[in-house]
Specification:
414 residues, alpha+beta, Transferase(Phosphotransferase), domain 1, 6-stranded mixed sheet, two-stranded antiparallel sheet, 14 strands, globular, receptor
């Protein structure tokens, strides 16, 4: 294994300086673009009030499904100047050479691609157990290698955030960052391999439905990951909680991935962090989108959206559905507190293979997580405590239907 020195963060900082310099030449263009876009578009969301009303929220819920990318609040150079400490946790990360990772992934061959993000591809590879040397496919340790596009400046910022947070944070429900590579314009990250891919794939892209028991297990694990982030002495707001960022191992244990948008939470007497608005419509909390004020309750809202996706089998935003059903929250929230209408929300692919009490409790948790008032939302610790008992329920709807008269069976179908 290579020896590590505590100067690895300095290596990252040197890489950023070059990227920051490249951005300086574009500052005048950014200013001109900003001046030319002072007039609000029809989809512009208000960001002036700390309290949003139902009408403003409706505008948010009906917005198109696109990435939230407001202008940068600070340059990369400024951010580096603020980063003066070198954390010893970074020294636990392995430093790979580009050639090692090229060999480990079979020259980044197309058939090794696991997925593609906004800033590059993720490849499957193999490394030796006790070091950074590449291994033959099927031997050593299986890893996932994320490669950043060389020209992705914003991607570099998020790349650094990944190292910043996952270099320090370790928990069973967070994906493990093994190491990194930084050579010239090459930026790569090496993670543990998650055999079953993302929750998004299992919910929306597989022919067979994800079993109810697996959904509860995944929801509980993901909630534990968020609770860990929020509960530390220096809380972290994940800011990008969505189905595609929840990865699953071979036993369906959930782990949060992609910390590129994570943000240090408020400290001391501060109630929120004021920041640029990033994320994805349909998952981001309305008050955050409209004010730029970020709190841990923003993550709680996003968790509520994903919980709805697991309950219904529907995407948070789906323009292919009829008007009134395209935004999952807007469509489902009115039904969550009504037991007579609740079962019409349940993913029909489950075919009554779900717990009746479990569905009721999941709907209740989602309802409170999606509260319009952030202060009324539960903490993630409270969510975890509510979810854990649901893993042991065996009151399956299918068994319940068999014991009822035919005239009563339609009640669960409505």
């Amino acid at each position: 294994m290579k020896e590590k020195s505590c100067g690895c963060w300095l290596a990252l900082a040197r890489g950023i300086k070059g990227a920051a310099a490249a951005s300086c030449g574009s500052s005048s263009l950014s200013a001109a673009a900003s001046a030319n876009n002072t007039k609000a578009s029809p989809n512009t969301l208000p960001r002036t009030s700390l309290v949003h009303d139902a009408a403003s929220e409706t505008r948010y819920l009906n917005a198109s499904n696109r990435e939230l990318t407001a202008p940068e609040e600070t340059t990369l150079a400024t951010e580096i100047l603020k980063s003066t400490s070198i954390n010893k946790a970074y020294c636990q990360l392995l430093e790979f050479t580009f050639q090692e990772l090229k060999s480990a992934t079979g020259n980044f061959r197309p058939d090794s691609i696991l997925g593609e993000g906004g800033f590059g591809y993720v490849f499957k590879g193999w490394i030796e157990e006790n070091g950074t040397a590449p291994a033959k496919p099927g031997t050593g340790i299986t890893v996932a290698v994320k490669s950043l596009k060389p020209d992705a400046l914003q991607g570099h910022r998020e790349w650094v955030a990944e190292v910043d947070f996952l270099g320090q944070l370790h928990h069973p429900n967070l994906v493990k960052l093994i190491g990194y590579c930084i050579e010239d314009d090459q930026r790569l990250l090496v993670y543990e391999f998650m055999a079953r891919g993302s929750l998004e794939n299992h919910l929306f892209r597989r022919a067979l439905p994800l079993p109810w028991s697996s959904r509860i297990k995944i929801a509980t694990g993901a909630a534990k990951g968020l609770a860990f982030l929020h509960g530390g002495t220096e809380p972290v707001i994940y800011r990008d909680f969505k189905a595609s960022n929840i990865l699953l191992d071979s036993e369906y244990n959930a782990k949060l991935s992609d910390f590129g948008l994570a943000k240090a939470g408020p400290q001391g007497d501060k109630t929120h962090v004021s920041t640029r608005v990033v994320g994805t419509y349909g998952y981001a909390a309305p008050e955050y989108v409209m004010t730029g004020h970020l709190t841990s309750k923003s993550d709680v809202y996003s968790f509520g959206v994903v919980l709805l996706e697991m309950l219904t089998g529907r995407r948070s935003m789906d323009k292919k559905r009829p008007n009134g059903e395209q935004n999952l929250v807007a469509w489902a929230r009115p039904h969550l507190g009504d037991r007579r209408r609740l079962y019409s929300l349940v993913d029909p692919r489950l075919e009554f293979n779900y717990s009746i009490k479990g569905v009721q409790k999941v709907a209740q948790i989602a309802y409170y997580c999606l509260s319009r008032d952030p202060k009324a939302r539960p903490s993630m610790d409270e969510v975890v405590k509510a979810l854990i008992p649901l893993q042991d329920l065996n009151d399956m709807a299918k068994l319940h239907l068999r014991s009822r008269a035919p005239s009563q069976r339609g009640k669960l179908r409505r």
